[in-house]
Every structure is written in C-alpha cells, then in structure tokens.
What we know:
With 226 residues, the protein is of the alpha/beta class. The protein has one domain: P-loop containing nucleotide triphosphate hydrolases (Rossmann fold, 3-Layer(aba) Sandwich), CATH 3.40.50.300. It contains seven helices and ten strands. It has helices at residues 50-57, 80-83, 102-112, 117-126, 142-156, 175-187, 199-205, and strands at 12-21, 24-34, 39-43, 65-70, 73-74, 87-90, 160-163, 191-195, 208-213, 216-219. Residues 1-5 have low confidence and may be disordered. It binds adenosine-5'-triphosphate. One of its GO terms (molecular function) is ATP binding. Keywords: ATP-binding, Cytochrome c-type biogenesis, Nucleotide-binding, Transport.
Amino acid sequence: xxxxxxxxxxxxxxxxxxxxxxxxxxxxxxxxxxxxxxxxxxxxxxxxxxxxxxxxxxxxxxxxxxxxxxxxxxxxxxxxxxxxxxxxxxxxxxxxxxxxxxxxxxxxxxxxxxxxxxxxxxxxxxxxxxxxxxxxxxxxxxxxxxxxxxxxxxxxxxxxxxxxxxxxxxxxxxxxxxxxxxxxxxxxxxxxxxxxxxxxxxxxxxxxxxxxxxxxxxxxxxxxxx
Length: 226
Ligand SMILES: Nc1ncnc2c1ncn2[C@@H]1O[C@H](COP(=O)(O)OP(=O)(O)OP(=O)(O)O)[C@@H](O)[C@H]1O
C-alpha cells in the first residue's frame, strides 16, 4: 500500500513490507533501503525470497502489506509504470528474442528507447560480444546471453540495476564485467542490488551484504574488505 511521503534520499526504500507468492507468505515485515551510489549484495538460502524481493524492487510485484518507494514511485501506484523503464532486472533467463541476432536484439532495444543504433554496437563491444554480434541469441551460450544482458544494461543506463544470480554462467574472468557494469550504474548516481550464491565474488561487487531469513532482511556482519 502506498506511503504518503515519498523518500527522495534513497533509490529504493521498503518499510515493513509483506509479499505473498501464489497466496503463500514469502516476505514479512521486511525493511530494506538502497542509497544512490550504493551496491547491496543479497544472500539467503534457496527459496528464502531473494528473487521475490528483486521483483518487488522492480515494481512488478506489489506488496500486500507495508509500504515502499522505488525511484520516487510508491509501490502499488500508477507511478510505477513511469519509473519502470529506469529499472533493469537481469533475471535467471535472458530477455532476448531468440531468433534475432545479438546485434538485432540490442539495436531493436536502442530504437525502442530512442537511442542511436550505434550505441547498441558500442554496448556489445564493451561486454566483449562484438565478435559474436551476428549470432542468433538462441545459439549463444548461457554466459554469452548473460553478457548480452549486461550490454542491455549499458545501453539503457538504468538508475536501479537488479541482478539475479549475477555470477551464474560467467567464468571467473567475467566477474569483472558484472562489477564494471554495476559500477557504471553507480557512477551515474544509480544503485544496484545483486543476488549471488557466490559470496566471495559478491563481496567484491557489493558495499554491504543483506541476508533474507524467514521473510525478513538482516545485515550480514562480516564487512567487505577495503
Ligand atoms: N511462480 C511461483 N509459484 C509458486 N511459488 C513460487 C513461485 N515463485 C517463487 N515461489 C516461492 O516463493 C518462495 C521464494 O522464492 P524465490 O525465488 O524468491 O527465492 P530465492 O531466494 O530467490 O531462491 P533461489 O536461491 O533458489 O533462487 C519460494 O518458497 C518459492 O517456492
């Protein structure tokens, strides 16, 4: 339910949020905030609700209790549709048209969002996909598809980047790419929330870690080394 007071100091803030999935409670009394320029790592057991929280932050899943704001839009309000283009959710499966080439996918997105097609080629180059740009998306490996997703993020310059299973399908050398993309979002005053089961890699990408336990968010004490 919408809060009457928008929070402008945070990219996203949730207060006492409750979320059901298929009528079953998943998140309960959850408080969570992410500030401009910040990267938060999200950890927790399988099924604890990490992906669910990302969908809430993406404004795709309205809470059944509590309140929150994302990019100034109250969760559950019509304003969510306005801010949604400034949120990038990179999920388990790639959001690519399988029969189009990687380049066609990115150029199509560039046109849709009012950008030059050349910007699509630049984004593909930045993620090391220039050589595979003419390959159909469904012929790409999982790691290549993930790189194409990161190119999508570079192209659309979101204020809030939500990365689910950030390191899945990426070789160790590609971890730097995930961090670089998140860093670029942060440099522009945006924020990122990164889910990963690879805690060692996550610590390299996040300012702090938050764990989802029994539907609530709690800080993970071990600090990220400076
Ligand atoms: N489409 C769905 N239908 C029914 N239940 C669902 C659905 N999606 C998620 N759930 C349930 O919601 C709960 C939270 O799932 P969620 O995917 O958010 O967890 P997670 O922490 O991201 O898990 P994992 O680490 O395994 O990816 C789980 O109990 C899951 O079974």
